[in-house]
Amino acid sequence: MSAPPLFEIQGLHVEVEGTEILKGVDLTILPGQVAALMGPNGSGKSTLANTLLAHPDYQVTAGRILFKGEDITSWPTDVRGKSGLFLAFQYPEEIPGVSVIQFLRQALSARKGIDLSILELRLAIMSWMDRLGIDPSFGDRYLNEGFSGGEKKRNEVLQMAILEPEFAVLDETDSGLDIDALKVVSKGVQEVRTDRPDLGVLVITHYQRILQYLAPDVVHILVDGRIVASGGMDLADRLEREGYESWRGPSAGHGTGPA
Asked: Where is the secretion signal located (predicted)?
């Protein structure tokens, strides 16, 4: 008997300022599965990420979002986070005056309902910092203030490790990273998955290169607010060769196989 879905998007339609951006998105992710969602600029990738975050500017007009079989479509951001959803931002915010460790303590308290001391938390994250190749002094720096692009993304992987979500959305995690930083961040994601094999991951990306390191189980292509094709890594390889033009316009193939 196959495992029930961990995360489902059913017939999702989303409007932004009265304009429909997502036009019926369906997506299913099983426990332990890595799914990649690829699409050109303007395809609706950021809209989907913001909708999963429960951003108030993004209005769901039809469809549902299900997490562990429960309808979370109307749940606010904080409740989604406490339930075990995690979203890594494309552009993480700087929070002056709040150290990485203080932020993790507050987030973990909200997620787990326990109040760890700074010392307890510092001990808990030291091994993860070592596994993720993060300098121990990192924990005392103000969140994302003066961080390089790679440091910001590694910090998000650290958050994902410490908060122990059941489902993680990585929104354009490869954005602005050079190849060395990309390898480090990808290795970090795989380290977390090794520790938590049931973690489901949705990787939202414009480029194929991060997929070479994360090896997704399934690749979906989003064009004009709809998923127009789904397949394995061969689909991403084809996309690299041909670009998105094969899936644009009325002649493009829709459904589960390549056009």
From this structure: none
